[in-house]
Amino acid sequence: MLNYDKFPNHRWNKLQKRLKEIIAPELNISFNNSPVVKKTDYSEIALRFFHIKLNREVIWRFPNDSEQPNWRFLYGHCGFQTAESYEYPIHSITKYLDLPKEQLLDYEDKAGLADILKVCDKRIGYNRLKELELSPAAKKIFDVRFKDKNKSEKQCNNTNYQLEN
């Protein structure tokens, strides 16, 4: 039997397949996990990089865009929190995918991916998503996913304004 801890990409590949099943088909989006092992004189440090690309443009990066404070300790700096108190993007994605459909809109995470996952999810529609307060990355995805609805809604608003005047 294989020890999957030695093959982190195997787990990521399975998770990525599950993630692709819920992503809206009109989105050209990719979720990329890049674990890197840095060898020092005394030990090995596992660095975890994660980024999201929309139409080949990087719109979100971990740890840079994460909402978690004081992340520098992970990369050899001092900090008061432990690695267990942090939520990595893979953990956040796993929790989201394991939720029942009724609880998706209530999901919040430490990594800062919750609203991005909600906007990408084809099970959640326009009317529910437009009520949410979204991060800049999630707004970009929302605009791409619902570009036709946004245009028609703006045209309706302009028509109503013209009729009133």
Characterise the protein shown here.
The chain has helices at 8-22, 89-98, 114-120, 126-129, 136-145, 147-164, and strands spanning 29-39, 44-54, 57-62. With 165 residues, the protein is of the alpha+beta class. The protein has one domain. A 3-stranded antiparallel β-sheet has the order 1-2-3. α1 (8-22) crosses α2 and α3 packs parallel to α5. Mean pLDDT is 79; it is low at 1-7, 76-81 and 159-163.
Q: Could you write a compact summary of the structure shown?
A:
The protein is α+β, with helices and mostly antiparallel strands. The protein has 6 helices and 3 strands; from the N terminus they run H-E-E-E-H-H-H-H-H.
Fraction of residues in helix? 25-40%
What gyration radius follows from the Cα positions, in whole Å? Answer: 19 Å
Percent strand equals 15-25%
- The chain-level structural class is alpha+beta
Provide the low-confidence segments as ranges.
1-7, 76-81, 159-163
Distinct helical segment count: 6
Secondary-structure element order, N to C:
HEEEHHHHH
The major beta sheet can be summarized as: 3 strands, antiparallel
Walk across the major sheet and give the strand order: 1-2-3
- Taken from the alpha-carbon principal axes, the silhouette is elongated
Termini separation: 73 Å
What is the number of beta strands?
3
